[in-house]
Amino acid sequence: MSSSSRNSSIEPIKQQVLALIRSGSLAADGKLPTERVLAEQFDVSRRAVRQALDSLEEQGLVWRKQGKGTFAGQPADPTGDLAARIAGETDALQVMEARLCIEPELAALCAKRMQPDELARLRRLVQRQFESSGPEAIELWDGAFHRLIAQCARNRPLLTAFALLDKIRSNPEWIRIRAKARSAPSLEVSHCEHVTIIEAIAAQNPELARTAMRDHLTTRFDALRQEMDPADAAWASVLFDPDTGA
Description:
Arc Repressor Mutant, subunit A, 11 helices, mainly alpha, about 70% helix, Four Helix Bundle (Hemerythrin (Met), subunit A)
């Protein structure tokens, strides 16, 4: 079978897998059913499912861990496990403050180092989030977008710092608060901001990428503060002013 014929034969299976992810029915870690279960669910061969998953993995939409299974999105860095030691000593607003310090620099480095195939993956991740409706799927693709930028910055110390924050922000209660802070209009704004970040990276303009990421996170920080208790919101305003960086 030619490559083009193979791709056309597995395309419907790929779309079924992506629809499953968009449905929000997966676990919080994005783990997919086994190949056997997917084959039975889609009424196709396990070989066809495996080929479809291979193609989705090449596109950066799923990843595999030997002995654990297949997961949607992008893998978390294992150094993020260090976060378990301090998760109880921080809160969502402190994590957001730290993200504002780190992720703009990761985006700037990506503008210098991200490869064309990685940029294509980033575009696909953003599109998947935009097409998702359930809060779990939205959270999954959003995390994958920021995780890929962190990985492609190719700076190990910064990636470790990001992974620490990434692990902490996976707290179910914080995920619930973030979901409350999202509305249909805010999701459209986030999509536009994600696209702006991508275009700055594609233009290989570190300063624009840095500014685009900072603007995006500031928008999310403001939305998050609105969902916090008044005392927490006041504390956050003292802790960090996005306009001045102080």
